[in-house]
Structure formats: structure tokens, C-alpha cells
């Protein structure tokens, strides 16, 4: 069973960027699915406008060619067309604005009572994670550092410069709160498949909420230029079922006790 789990988590396709990829990574949260849907809706209007403008340009070049109209007409005003090109773009912008505002508000919404709170502390150039819900007395009992695996030391199935020695393990289909802060310079906690990009500003605590809808391994990177080794501090989030998550936490707590 352990071998099958290892095979699934290392060799099976993961949520990471692919060579020559143009589209989005597969969505693993409702927020990311909303971002993808909004992109597709806006792209639909973009294609319509592009085709319409190209049709007007081609029609204009064809009908107003100097051989067909040696003496061009002088048109300086057209009330109807001016009304149309004001009303139709306004309607299109309304169709774009309403879902985009709804998505923005839902992205800013923070879960009032999350099941788990994880604090991600950015360093040059690694991260420290604290599971704030597992404290023993006054001491943090579930804290670990996460370093990137060097590019000359990956195992079979691991992505180059995307794998870390300690993954962030979370339960699937559970409301999570991520608190992000740096210990030195500005960093960022960004995982594309989860639809998360939260900046870590020195002296401040930023928070975001996620709910991973399926089990899997999700890769991200720091999206702030934090120094020379900026590209060498990736993020790996592993979503597992709740029983597996409880077992891992219990084993880690007992191992540190």
C-alpha cells in the first residue's frame, strides 16, 4: 500500500506546469475554477469583438478602395453609430464586471471558523510552516522547515526545482486558513492550481482561505523577487483524505514528543 501511495504521489501526473503550456493548470479549489470560468467568459467576448473589428476593417478596405471610390465621401458625423458604439461596449463591460466583482469579493472572503490554520513564514530562501492548531503548552509542537531539493539530487518522478524535502500536508475538502508573513524580505505564497497568491510583507500578517476539493500534489513558487535564489524556494501542497491527514499529524506529534 505504501508503494502504491509513493507511486501515485511521485510518478503520476501532478498539478504542475508542463513544457510549452499555454492554458491554466487544473483547478483544485472553487476559487481557481471561478478564475478559469471568468477567463473563458472574457475570452468569448474578446473573440466576438476581434471578429467584428476585423470584419469592419476588411469591409472598409474593400468598399473604399481608391479604384472603386476615386472621390471619397466626407463623413464627419453619424448619430446612430455613435450611440451604438457607446451602448454595446457598456453592455459588454456590464457582463464582464458583474461576475468579476463577485469573484473578487469571494476571493477576499476569509473563513470565520477554519478547521486548520497554517502559518507560512518566508525566509531567504526557504519556508517555515507552523500548524497553529497543534500547540503543546506554550511551545509550537508542529513546526518544520521546507527546503527545495537540489537539481542534482532529485528522485524518480520529482519535478526539477519544484520539489521540497517537507511538503505541506492538508486534508482535502476542508476549510483552511493560510497566514503568510516573511522573516526578512518580501516573499509570496502562490500555488496556481489552488488559485492562491498571497504576498508576504515584512511586519504584516496576510491571510487567505482555501478548500482543496481533490487529493493530489500541487506545486507553486515564490512570485516576489526576494533575492538571488528567488527561484529556489518552491511550494508543495499535498492534499490527502482526512484519515490519512490525522494519521500523519499523530505520527509527527508523537515523533517530536
UniProtKB/TrEMBL annotation:
<keyword id="KW-0732">Signal</keyword>
<dbReference type="GO" id="GO:0042773">
    <property type="term" value="P:ATP synthesis coupled electron transport"/>
</dbReference>
<dbReference type="GO" id="GO:0005743">
    <property type="term" value="C:mitochondrial inner membrane"/>
</dbReference>
<dbReference type="GO" id="GO:0005507">
    <property type="term" value="F:copper ion binding"/>
</dbReference>
<dbReference type="InterPro" id="IPR008972">
    <property type="entry name" value="Cupredoxin"/>
</dbReference>
<feature type="transmembrane region" description="Helical">
    <location>
        <begin position="42"/>
        <end position="62"/>
    </location>
</feature>
<keyword id="KW-0186">Copper</keyword>
<dbReference type="InterPro" id="IPR014222">
    <property type="entry name" value="Cyt_c_oxidase_su2"/>
</dbReference>
<dbReference type="InterPro" id="IPR002429">
    <property type="entry name" value="CcO_II-like_C"/>
</dbReference>
<dbReference type="Pfam" id="PF02790">
    <property type="entry name" value="COX2_TM"/>
</dbReference>
<keyword id="KW-0812">Transmembrane</keyword>
<protein>
    <recommendedName>
        <fullName>Cytochrome c oxidase subunit 2</fullName>
    </recommendedName>
</protein>
<keyword id="KW-0249">Electron transport</keyword>
<keyword id="KW-0999">Mitochondrion inner membrane</keyword>
<feature type="domain" description="Cytochrome oxidase subunit II copper A binding">
    <location>
        <begin position="113"/>
        <end position="251"/>
    </location>
</feature>
<keyword id="KW-0679">Respiratory chain</keyword>
<keyword id="KW-0496">Mitochondrion</keyword>
<comment type="similarity">
    <text>Belongs to the cytochrome c oxidase subunit 2 family.</text>
</comment>
<comment type="function">
    <text>Component of the cytochrome c oxidase, the last enzyme in the mitochondrial electron transport chain which drives oxidative phosphorylation. The respiratory chain contains 3 multisubunit complexes succinate dehydrogenase (complex II, CII), ubiquinol-cytochrome c oxidoreductase (cytochrome b-c1 complex, complex III, CIII) and cytochrome c oxidase (complex IV, CIV), that cooperate to transfer electrons derived from NADH and succinate to molecular oxygen, creating an electrochemical gradient over the inner membrane that drives transmembrane transport and the ATP synthase.</text>
</comment>
<keyword id="KW-0472">Membrane</keyword>
<dbReference type="GO" id="GO:1902494">
    <property type="term" value="C:catalytic complex"/>
</dbReference>
<dbReference type="GO" id="GO:1902495">
    <property type="term" value="C:transmembrane transporter complex"/>
</dbReference>
<dbReference type="InterPro" id="IPR001505">
    <property type="entry name" value="Copper_CuA"/>
</dbReference>
<keyword id="KW-0813">Transport</keyword>
<dbReference type="Pfam" id="PF00116">
    <property type="entry name" value="COX2"/>
</dbReference>
<dbReference type="GO" id="GO:0016491">
    <property type="term" value="F:oxidoreductase activity"/>
</dbReference>
<feature type="transmembrane region" description="Helical">
    <location>
        <begin position="83"/>
        <end position="105"/>
    </location>
</feature>
<keyword id="KW-1133">Transmembrane helix</keyword>
<dbReference type="InterPro" id="IPR045187">
    <property type="entry name" value="CcO_II"/>
</dbReference>
<keyword id="KW-0479">Metal-binding</keyword>
<feature type="domain" description="Cytochrome oxidase subunit II transmembrane region profile">
    <location>
        <begin position="16"/>
        <end position="111"/>
    </location>
</feature>
<dbReference type="InterPro" id="IPR034210">
    <property type="entry name" value="CcO_II_C"/>
</dbReference>
<dbReference type="GO" id="GO:0004129">
    <property type="term" value="F:cytochrome-c oxidase activity"/>
</dbReference>
<dbReference type="InterPro" id="IPR036257">
    <property type="entry name" value="Cyt_c_oxidase_su2_TM_sf"/>
</dbReference>
<dbReference type="InterPro" id="IPR011759">
    <property type="entry name" value="Cyt_c_oxidase_su2_TM_dom"/>
</dbReference>
<keyword id="KW-1278">Translocase</keyword>
<feature type="signal peptide">
    <location>
        <begin position="1"/>
        <end position="16"/>
    </location>
</feature>
Amino acid at each position: 500500500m505504501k508503494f502504491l501511495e509513493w507511486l501515485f504521489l511521485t510518478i503520476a501526473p501532478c498539478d504542475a506546469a508542463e513544457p510549452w503550456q499555454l492554458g491554466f493548470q487544473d483547478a483544485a479549489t472553487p476559487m481557481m475554477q471561478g478564475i478559469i470560468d471568468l477567463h473563458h467568459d472574457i475570452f468569448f467576448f474578446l473573440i466576438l469583438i476581434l471578429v467584428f473589428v476585423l470584419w469592419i476593417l476588411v469591409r472598409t478596405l474593400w468598399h473604399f478602395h481608391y479604384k472603386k471610390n476615386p472621390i471619397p465621401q466626407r463623413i464627419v458625423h453619424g448619430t446612430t453609430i455613435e450611440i451604438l458604439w457607446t451602448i454595446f461596449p457598456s453592455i459588454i463591460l456590464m457582463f464582464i464586471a458583474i461576475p468579476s466583482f463577485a469573484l473578487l469579493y469571494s476571493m477576499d472572503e476569509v473563513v470565520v471558523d477554519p478547521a486548520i490554520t497554517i502559518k507560512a513564514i518566508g525566509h531567504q530562501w526557504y519556508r517555515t510552516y507552523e500548524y497553529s492548531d497543534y500547540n503543546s503548552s506554550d511551545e509550537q509542537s508542529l513546526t518544520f522547515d521546507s527546503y527545495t531539493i537540489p537539481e542534482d539530487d532529485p528522485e524518480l518522478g520529482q519535478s526539477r526545482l519544484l520539489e521540497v524535502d517537507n511538503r505541506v500536508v492538508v486534508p482535502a475538502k476542508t476549510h483552511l486558513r493560510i497566514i503568510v508573513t516573511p522573516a526578512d524580505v518580501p516573499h509570496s505564497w502562490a500555488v496556481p492550481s489552488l488559485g492562491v497568491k498571497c504576498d508576504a510583507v515584512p511586519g504584516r500578517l496576510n491571510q487567505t482561505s482555501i478548500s482543496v476539493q481533490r487529493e493530489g500534489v500541487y506545486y507553486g513558487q515564490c512570485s516576489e523577487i526576494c533575492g538571488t535564489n528567488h527561484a529556489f524556494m518552491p511550494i508543495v501542497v499535498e492534499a490527502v483524505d482526512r484519515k490519512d491527514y490525522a494519521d500523519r499529524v499523530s505520527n509527527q506529534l508523537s515523533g517530536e514528543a
